[in-house]
Amino acid sequence: MSIPPRSTSGDRPIPAHDGQMPRPDGGVDAGGPASTAPPRRSRWAWLARLWALSTGRFGLIVVAVVVVTAIVARFWTPFDPQQVDIANRWAPPSWPHVLGTDATGRDILSLLMAGARTTVFVAVGAGLIATVIGVALAALGALTVRWVRESVAVFVDILIAFPVLLIAMMISAVWGGSLWVVIWAVGIGFGVNIARVTRPELRRVLHSDFVLAGRASGLTPAQNLWRHLLPNVAPVFIVQLSWGMAVAVLAEAGLSYLGFGAPVTEPSWGLLLAQLQQYIQVHPLSVVWPGLAITFTVLGLNLLGDALREATDPTLSRSPFATRRARLHVPEVVA
Amino acid sequence: MIRYTLTRFALLLLGLLVASVLIFLTLRVLPGDIAQLIGGVNSSPAQIAAIRERLGLDRPLAVQYLEWIGGVLRGDLGRSLLTGTPVIDELAQKAQVTVPLGIMSLLVAVVISVPLGVLSAMRRGHADGTALSVGSQTLAAVPVVWAGMMLVVVFAVWLGWLPAQGFPRAGWSDPAAAFQSLILPALTIGIVEGAMLLRFVRSATLQAVGQDFVRTAAAKGLTRDAALIRHGLPVVGLSVITVLGLQVAGIIVGAVVIEQLFSLPGIGRMLVSDVAARDLPKVQGELLALTGFVLVVGFVVDLVHRVIDPRQREAA
């Protein structure tokens, strides 16, 4: 869906989305030869560049592992994650309980696998809400009349000071805690972040030739937005989204730990941490696993975001030294 | 400068206004009926009406908001529904734990991140620089709760050097014990926040290496590292100041979770239990105090940055 900005120089105003670079094999090539073939400007080339970066590979693999685990856990886990088995409580890591069991004999590996479902659900949900809010605010802040634009910008600057956790506590105080609270809080908090980064980008693209050409050739503003503006801010936006999902995973863990996230009947890594913490004096090693799962996922999403930025940065594709220059960019600090 | 200060101050006031309206509306309008919540499901309509009247909920929203804000301006953040104690008094009392915790965390974060961040930038491409970079990237992904648990496992359970939980009942009249009980919590927040700050310092240092004045100094005979340390570090320091506001927000969020983990009687733990107990007037006051604090810190950081950064002065 995203086109790196550099592909725009050859963009025709109409239609931008069909007939993109037919490949000899007729398929979409995500790796291998395309990574070293800049002359053929494919919209999927960024994916190859992503895979070429070690951070990008790591990020993609981690995200794939977590998503696949979540899907598998939907149908199968080694044990029923909520199955109480008092006879086998605190089993050490061994077969068949690979990571051991907890205070009620639940299999920790199964709990972790089931917890991945919750994590993916929250990350995707928060990502969708952040997308809608972010794009809406960015569009309002970039494409409307001046006083609306500037009020939106000020509003976004103010909202950005609200920490996500405090938003979540505010919503929890009213409706009680649930996974939806986490999703909405992170969605709102990160949507504002996305808006702040995307808005100037949208302003910049707005004045580029191909958007003017699109307008001149009779596209309505909505068509222009959909065909030219959004695809060209997509790289900036996807990078933010990846980081936002990392925040969502951390927020879910933190809020579930505090008791404002997943209900006790729902498997969640943060909740598992809270449950295992009670026995930390006696069984200190059991808390290692859920923490590792969270760290691994967050690290994967963070690195994926970093690598996406590197792979889609338009200043990168022109010179072989560009990769080094890009590392010098000061990163936006993620809340 | 005066013009900048005034504009920035206006933005701060606007921010406080928006924050207070959002908090007020979320907690007052959206829950449906706060009186029903207090009275419980089994209360009669007459009881509900009495509660509404006692809390002033029967008056127009705008009036309620203005009364609340009027009170806030006079230093009255409202009263707890459950205990009737003024929120401001409880905040002041709990701040005795949270403020020292926050300051210690910030110190830990800065002491870790600035030297190591500069080092990891200067040693880029070497094994130690890469290790620092990978390590900070990983630590920045660690949930603060888990970092705390791991520190508890090592320093309290295995080594037995520090208490795993709690705060002395005597408070700061027993300074040694009080300080000791804050060490692990402050280390936890400081390490996780410091890992993020380290990444920022690293990028800022790498950027400084490419600056003209550092290159000129190197061309005039300083070694690259000496040029960086003498001429580049002040720039790095300035950019660290710009993210301090974010760091403070991060520390507040960290304190909410970490005070829970370590059973510290601070503002964060109070907020958690008030949210769980649905003590809405109290939550309202606490949230306003916390967001107000974050906004004011942002304002002060911007002003300080403006004053001490020569490039910013020239731009003005």
Note down, in words, how this protein is organized.
Chain A is an all-alpha fold and 335 residues long. In chain A, helix 6 packs antiparallel against helix 8 (221-258), helix 8 (221-258) runs antiparallel to helix 10 (288-312) and helix 9 runs antiparallel to helix 10. Chain A starts with 44 loop residues before the first helix and ends in an 8-residue tail after the last helix. Chain A has 11 helices and no strands. The radius of gyration of chain A is 23 Å and the shape is elongated. Chain B is an all-alpha fold and 316 residues long. Helices cover 78% and strands 0% of the residues of chain B. Chain B is globular and about 85 Å long. Chain B starts with a helix and ends with a helix. The relative contact order of chain B is 0.14. The interface between A and B is large, with 53 and 59 residues.
* Number of helical stretches of at least 4 residues of chain A: 11
Structural class of chain A: mainly alpha
Number of strands of chain A: 0
Mean pLDDT of chain B, to the nearest integer, reads 84
Uncertain segments of chain A? 1-39, 316-335
Distance between the termini of chain A: 27 Å
Number of distinct beta strands of chain B: 0
Number of helices of chain B: 13
- H and E string of chain A: HHHHHHHHHHH
What's the main sheet of chain A like?
none
Shape of chain B: globular
Oligomerization status of the protein chains? heterodimer
| C-alpha Rg of chain B (nearest Å) | 24 Å
Task: Estimate percent helicity of chain B.
Answer: over 70%
> Helices and strands of chain B, in N-to-C order?
HHHHHHHHHHHHH
Largest protein interface, residues of each chain = A-B, 53 and 59 residues
